[in-house]
Design a protein that fits this description.
The protein is of the alpha+beta class. It is built from two helices and three strands. It has a single domain, classed as Glycoprotein, Type 4 Pilin.
């Protein structure tokens, strides 16, 4: 049985995925800025993202797939992650390390 897809469906799906990656990058930068403000005010990085609400953020952002961002503080280095479309830890996760300027779009072409 053959499946016929409408013209442009793959292209639309690819564009949507790229838009989601741009949204995640943007969210990571916003969260990073408020984590940095918290560190300036408190002298250390927050242990959890929840402490940013309500002083720094009105609410915690969710990724484009509707899942909460994951925050990890390891050896005094903050990391922000999204588990991606499947919402499960695995190969398609998006992670931002505060010491890195790597574009997520380069990783997920």
């Amino acid at each position: 049985m053959a499946v016929i897809l409408p013209p442009g469906l793959f292209h639309h799906s690819h564009n949507r995925h790229n838009a989601f990656i741009v949204k995640v990058e943007s969210d990571f930068r916003v969260i990073e800025s408020y984590i940095d403000l918290y560190k300036i005010d408190e002298g250390l990085y927050p242990e959890r993202l929840e402490v940013l609400v309500p002083k720094y953020l009105s609410e915690l952002a969710v990724d484009p797939w509707g899942n909460r961002y994951i925050y990890l503080l390891e050896n005094n280095k903050p990391y922000i992650s999204s588990f991606g479309a499947d919402g499960v830890l695995g190969d398609n996760d998006l992670t931002f390390n505060f010491d890195s300027d790597i574009s997520l779009r380069e990783h997920f072409k």
